[in-house]
């Protein structure tokens, strides 16, 4: 199965809200929520994509040709590629009932693990979502990253017990999900977290703790103070706040502030292997891609996920070779403009 076949199949299965566009750039769905769109006028998701396209790569083929190594070492594990599948929740609400969160995560986790990367899994108000996600990660020998919503501390503690049983090699919290209505209305309160809260959660995790949803230097320094092993520069794909900067715009300043002291991932509008190269050149250690993996699952299940991973991997390797970088360590800021 190739990626064009994945897209064609997805259009038959993914429902009326997502168009399974050739490039997932936020234009066709804009503010379609429920659906794959973004909050408000959909500006943030669209801007995420467009800002990566404004960055250009600098070719340099005046170097001896050799094999390209795209592998990444992270938290004691080795991966074939420096990109991961992002967490997505309520797929049957935002896409179609061909999948629910349980069946979606089962497919995504196993397919990613089999093809040399890992999936971040979602969370939800239904306890079965986290239970099934952590079960899938356990079956993949811990090769997955459960992403816990910023619930109240008692609920988080219950979720972390499931995470530990799964043997997951890392655990994340998408703190930007504080803007989701179902968290705002919880009793006891859920949502935003203080540095002290994050410290307690990082200790509960029992594995490298990743704070997802950092968009400022101030936020990155808070996550570092709390003991996070990594951050994800992310605005939740534009789904929690309109009129945000793009992740590509804020990544360099965050790398300058905390790069080298913690791992830095970035998501938001990254859609190709060339985009992945750009993010690595700007200082990210790895990237996360979410919406297109939904298309891949709906368009071909495990085979669809493999097709998309292969597409990204080929584009990344080609770009590295054409820019004179034959390993991830050789990718430098002067390779983009």
From TrEMBL:
Pfam families: FMN_dh. CDD domains: alpha_hydroxyacid_oxid_FMN (cd02809). Coiled coil: none annotated. Its cofactor is FMN. It catalyses: (S)-lactate + O2 = pyruvate + H2O2. InterPro entries: Aldolase_TIM, Alpha-hydoxy_acid_DH_FMN, FMN-dep_DH, FMN_HAD. SUPFAM superfamilies: FMN-linked oxidoreductases. Gene3D superfamilies: Aldolase class I. Keywords: Flavoprotein, FMN, Oxidoreductase. Residues 37-337 form the FMN hydroxy acid dehydrogenase domain. Belongs to the FMN-dependent alpha-hydroxy acid dehydrogenase family. This is L-lactate oxidase. The lineage of its organism: Bacteria, Bacillati, Bacillota, Clostridia, Lachnospirales.
């Amino acid at each position: 199965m190739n990626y064009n076949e994945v897209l064609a199949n997805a259009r038959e299965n993914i429902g009326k809200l997502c168009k399974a566009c050739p490039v997932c750039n936020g234009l066709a769905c804009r503010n379609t929520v429920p659906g794959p769109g973004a909050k408000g006028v959909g500006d943030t998701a669209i801007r995420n994509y467009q800002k990566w396209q404004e960055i250009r790569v600098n070719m340099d083929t005046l170097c001896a040709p050799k094999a390209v190594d795209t592998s990444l070492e992270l938290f004691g594990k080795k991966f074939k590629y420096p990109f991961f599948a992002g967490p997505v929740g309520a797929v049957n609400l935002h896409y179609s009932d061909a999948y629910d969160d349980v069946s979606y995560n089962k497919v995504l986790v196993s397919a990613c693990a089999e093809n040399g990367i890992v999936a971040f899994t979602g969370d939800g108000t239904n306890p079965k979502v986290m239970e099934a996600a952590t079960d899938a990660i356990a079956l993949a020998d811990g090769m997955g990253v459960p992403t816990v919503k910023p619930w109240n501390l008692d609920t988080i503690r219950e979720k972390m017990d499931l995470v530990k049983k799964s043997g997951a090699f890392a655990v994340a919290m998408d703190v930007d999900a504080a803007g989701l209505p179902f968290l705002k209305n919880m009793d006891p309160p859920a949502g935003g977290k203080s540095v002290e809260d994050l410290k307690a959660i990082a200790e509960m995790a029992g594995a490298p703790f990743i704070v997802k949803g950092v968009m400022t230097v101030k936020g990155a320094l808070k996550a570092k103070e709390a003991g996070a092993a990594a951050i994800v520069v992310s605005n939740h794909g534009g789904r929690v706040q309109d009129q945000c900067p793009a992740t590509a715009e804020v990544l360099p300043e965050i790398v300058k502030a905390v790069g080298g002291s913690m791992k830095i991932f970035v998501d938001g509008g990254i859609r190709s292997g060339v985009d992945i190269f750009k993010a690595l050149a700007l200082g990210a250690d790895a990237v996360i891609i979410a919406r297109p993996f939904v298309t891949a699952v709906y368009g071909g299940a495990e085979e669809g996920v493999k097709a998309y991973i292969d597409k990204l991997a080929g584009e990344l390797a080609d770009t590295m070779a054409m820019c004179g970088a034959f390993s991830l360590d050789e990718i430098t800021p002067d390779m983009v403009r």
